[in-house]
Specification:
The complex is a heterodimer of chains A (about 300) and B (about 350). Chain A is mainly α. Chain A contains 13 helices and no strands. Chain B has a six-stranded mixed beta sheet with strand order 6-7-8-3-9-10, sandwiched between helices. Classes of the chains: A mainly alpha (about 300), B alpha+beta (about 350). Chain A: This is ABC transporter permease subunit.
């Protein structure tokens, strides 16, 4: 029998389909289409619309809205007011979430505790706000207990000011921060801590030298997501705070521009500024991750 | 060599027990380890060998008994206070620290001056032959190199005791042999007292000065590799030491340390390793090496050949008897599949054990 030799030379290269597939475009790519359409219609278009709208003020030049915002302290103070609420709240939530996660990580029946901790998310901010109004109010249980115990003479003013909103943001923000933190903490190989212990590291040293450096990138992400949530606070700032004073947050300014002055262009400008401030903080925090190790948090291959 | 291991006499486990709820993972384990000794804890998975190691390291509290380092009771100390170097199965290297920082971690925790840390780390790097790799992160190293870092990190703190938990189980076969020799070499150079957990009897036989065989949380036998290999005390230890053929039979007679069994109508004679009474059930244990083709009659059984594998120097076959006993044997010539042959064993090479007591759980 004759040996089979490759007599026909391959003239054509790979087909267009093969070449596209090699670059990552194949039929599976079509699965992205619904999501792309969705985000185009519900995010990209409104955003672009609002962006352009913000440069078409009712009167004055194309930057008039922005000039007005940054020259009126009643408006530009809202940035500081919002940051003063959202940054401390986010940091406090993170600070609470870390020890709780470290404890929950070791527990057998995590599910039950996690469910209890996550409950506030499902209640919604308005219900929490109404509850706090009663609970923390001058005639609420909290003040009455403190008075009864003789710790204070006069009820503390805890609602319709900064602290009311603060408490509400902590309650509704904590579960979210906690869940994220827990997932990062449990992602670290427990053998690393054991290894550090056998090498003579005390519990504090193990946290500082092993856990903390490995958790920092995760904490940065957690901070960003929790921060963005707290920054867009609206219902509790109105219901529990003093919406004309210390808790006049930026979303209230946007609301007033849109629905009290009917100036959608100004409202869009406020929204753009709000977005820019969030973006600036998020970029800053995420960029700081570069200072830390970001690889896998287990003992490498194993 | 300035990595000097701290001076002590012995580590003593005194009836150490560990319970997990209703499960007794360890029951009254007593063991004395002399300075410079290399001890292997050997046993199948779930036998309690890793539990023993974790109890010694302090990663698991004991629920009974005590552990002593000379005259000091240490089972009440936290792991960081015991200062034993430990090599973990997955190495547990700190992924965010480079090789130098990983090895120096324990010294840094002790507050040692930086210059001295550097000097000791350099020495440890030399000992495990990792010079030139000190600035790499663990993720950039091969499995064998990670293993070396883990060993260096454990010994640089100059611990009285080095604990190794199946350190070679994540490596491929070739690297495993290479690292086994390395561990041997490092032990010879430093003389570090070592407890080494493994389920691989070859590793235990080649590395250890003494082997402790555990099963169901109980010490079954302690001895030198030679003692265990040649004279296992129980059937389960024998099986672990390569006695793959176990022939169930009835004791016909016991005389002068020799037992005669009735196995499916044939007479098998061997060395009695446990107390046997005439008429009771017993097992004859034979290594595949000692089971060869022979004639009917003298210490032989009739079997049918099931498989035959070519292994270069010899053939390894499996067979079964009419009564359903399975056999593994060696042969220098090929044997036809399905043929009926007689397998024979020298009666000096057959060990006879009593029926094992069912493990308590």
């Amino acid at each position: 029998m004759e040996a089979i030799a490759p007599t026909t030379r391959v003239v054509q290269g790979p087909s267009l389909r093969q070449r596209l597939a090699a670059r990552g475009f194949d039929a599976v790519t079509l699965l992205v289409v619904p999501a792309a359409v969705f985000s185009l219609l519900l995010f990209v278009y409104p955003f672009a619309f609002g962006f352009i709208l913000s440069f078409e003020p009712k009167n004055g030049g194309w930057l008039a809205n922005y000039q007005r915002f940054f020259s009126d302290s009643y408006l530009y103070d809202t940035i500081a007011n919002t940051l003063l609420l959202s940054v401390p709240v986010t940091l406090l939530n993170l600070l609470f979430a870390v020890p709780v996660s470290f404890r929950v990580r070791l527990m057998r029946r995590q599910r039950l505790l996690t469910t209890i901790l996550v409950l506030p998310i499902t209640l919604g901010t308005v219900l929490v706000a109404e509850g706090l109004l009663n609970y923390l109010g001058p005639q609420g249980w909290f003040n009455r207990t403190l008075v009864a115990l003789g710790l204070i003479d006069q009820p503390l003013r805890l609602v319709h000011n900064y602290w009311g909103v603060f408490a509400s943001l902590v309650i509704t923000g904590f579960p979210f921060t906690f869940l994220l933190t827990l997932s990062y903490v449990t992602g670290i190989d427990p053998a690393l801590e054991q290894a550090a212990a056998t090498l003579g590291a005390s519990a504090w040293q193990r946290f500082v030298h092993v856990y903390l450096p490995l958790l920092m990138p995760g904490f940065a992400i957690t901070f960003c997501l929790s921060f963005v949530q707290a920054f867009s606070v609206f219902p509790s700032a109105v219901l529990l705070g003093e919406p004309a004073g210390s808790t006049r947050v930026i979303s209230i300014a946007a609301y007033q521009a849109a629905f009290e002055e009917y100036d959608y262009s100004m409202a869009s400008a406020v929204a753009m500024i709000m977005g820019f401030v969030q973006l600036a903080i998020v970029v800053l925090v995420l960029a700081s991750r570069g200072l830390f190790y970001r690889g896998p948090a287990s003992g490498a291959k194993g | 060599m300035t990595i000097a291991l701290s001076q002590f006499g012995e580590v003593r486990l005194d009836r150490v027990s560990r319970e997990f709820g209703a499960l007794n993972a360890l029951r009254d384990v007593s063991l004395t380890i002399q300075r410079r000794e290399f001890i292997a804890l050997l046993g199948p998975s779930g036998c309690g060998k890793s539990t023993t190691l974790n109890c010694i390291a302090g990663l698991l509290p004991v629920t009974g008994g005590a552990i002593w380092l000379d005259k000091n009771r240490i089972d009440t100390l936290r792991p960081e206070e015991r200062g034993f170097g430990m090599v973990f199965q997955n190495y547990a290297l700190f992924p965010h620290l480079n090789v130098r920082q990983n090895i120096g971690f324990g010294l840094k925790m002790r507050g040692m001056p930086k210059a001295e840390i550097d000097r000791k780390v350099n020495e440890a790097l030399g000992l495990v032959r990792l010079q030139g790799q000190e600035n790499k992160l663990p993720g950039q190293l091969s499995g064998g190199q990670q293993q070396r870092v883990a060993i260096a990190r454990a010994i640089v703190i100059e611990p009285p005791l080095v604990l190794m938990d199946e350190p070679l189980s994540n490596l491929d076969a070739k690297l495993r042999l290479e690292m086994r020799a390395e561990i041997r070499r490092i032990h010879n150079e430093l003389g570090a007292t070592t407890i080494y957990v493994t389920h691989d009897q070859d590793e235990a036989l080649s590395l250890a000065d003494r082997i402790v065989v555990l099963r169901d949380g109980v010490v079954r036998q302690v001895g030198t590799p030679k003692e265990l290999y040649e004279a296992p005390a129980h059937l389960d230890v024998a099986e672990f030491m390569g006695f793959r053929n176990r022939l169930k039979g009835t004791v016909v007679s016991v005389e002068n340390g020799r037992a005669l069994l009735d196995v499916e109508g044939s007479r098998i004679s061997g060395v009695a390793r446990e107390n046997l009474s005439v008429g009771s059930t017993a097992y004859a244990a034979i290594r595949p090496d000692d089971l060869v083709l022979g004639e009917a009659g003298g210490n032989a059984l009739k079997v049918k050949v099931d498989t035959i594998e070519y292994r270069g120097r010899e053939f390894v076959g499996t067979a079964h008897s009419e009564g359903g006993l399975d056999f593994v044997f060696r042969s220098h010539q090929p044997v036809d599949l399905g043929s009926t042959v007689h397998l024979q064993a020298d009666d000096q090479r057959v060990l006879v054990f009593a029926e094992p007591i069912k493990g308590r759980r």
